[in-house]
Amino acid sequence: MCGSIDCAGKSLDLSSPKVMGILNVTPDSFSDGGVFFERGKVSLDRVLGQAEAMTAAGASILDVGGESTRPGAAPVSEAEELDRVIPVIEAISQRFDTIVSVDSSTASVMREAVVAGAGLINDVRALRRDGALVAARDTELPVCLMHMSDEPTTMQNNPQYQDVVAEVRVFLSDRLADCVKAGIPEHLILLDPGFGFGKTAAHNYALLAHLEDIVSIGRPVLAGLSRKSMIAAEIHRNLDERLPASLALATLAAAKGARIIRAHDVKETADAMAMVAAMEREL
User: Fold this and answer.
1) Phi, psi of 226 (to 5 degrees)
2) Which of 70, 84, 169, 228 is catalytic?
3) For the chain, percent helix, then strand, then coil, each to nearest 5?
4) What does the pLDDT look like over 204-263, one tens digit per residue?
5) Pick from 82, 89, 96: which is nearest to 10 by CA?
6) Is 191 exposed, middle or buried (0-12, 13-18, 19+ CB in 10 A)?
7) Host domain of residue 182
8) Number of structural domains in the chain
9) Is 228 a catalytic residue?
10) Residue 256 maps to which CATH number?
11) Any bridge partners for residue 147, and if so which?
12) Which of 29, 77, 133, 144 could form a disulfide with 122 if both were Cys (CB 3.0 to 4.6 A apart)?
């Protein structure tokens, strides 16, 4: 079992699986892009309403992102990303006691996010963008390192692996070692196998089937499976029809050792995690 992680003074207890609610303040994210925009700008009122609802529904973390990483998404400028996420992080952290995570690969965004009140960095590029590793170290925040093959613009162009589970495990182990060597304490590092990021549906299901291999690295694992195309590959459901399958995937991931489940549907996912926690108490 995992213990607690200090997220800028707020304790994240990972002895049971927790829910990370998704708050994408982008116009083009794959599921909720544009939801929090009004007249071309982020609406703080809409974001705060969703933050309140997610917190009340059981989210332990609210993950704020200003750069879409859906397949084919293009990067945004640092200035645009800062304009989108910093006011949101500041507003949420001032009003709610929930941990705020910044979903970013950009060094300047990481630095500004900690000033605004963020308690965790969630980086799909595993701190490989210029300056990100040093910036993350300097914030002294916990950081989640994700595996992604290539970049969002091209990651789904025929991804190939000899052994996806082994290759993702090696990448995350190596990246963990690199970050520790650079000065990030190991106890502040989480890992994410990157479901849907440079992987076919078969790759995603292989990773889920063998998630314990990623867990065995020894750091808490985050799993993001909510509404993803791996569901449609099996049962051909539209985005708004994927809740039952998302809950099934989340439950399987948690039962296999994932400690954080990143989800759009917080209430339902929190209920599912409560069932996993009840089972774990009897192990």
Assistant:
1) -60, 120
2) 228
3) 45, 15, 40
4) 999 999 999 999 999 999 999 999 999 999 999 999 999 999 999 999 999 999 999 999
5) 96
6) buried
7) 4-280
8) 1
9) yes
10) 3.20.20.20
11) none
12) 144
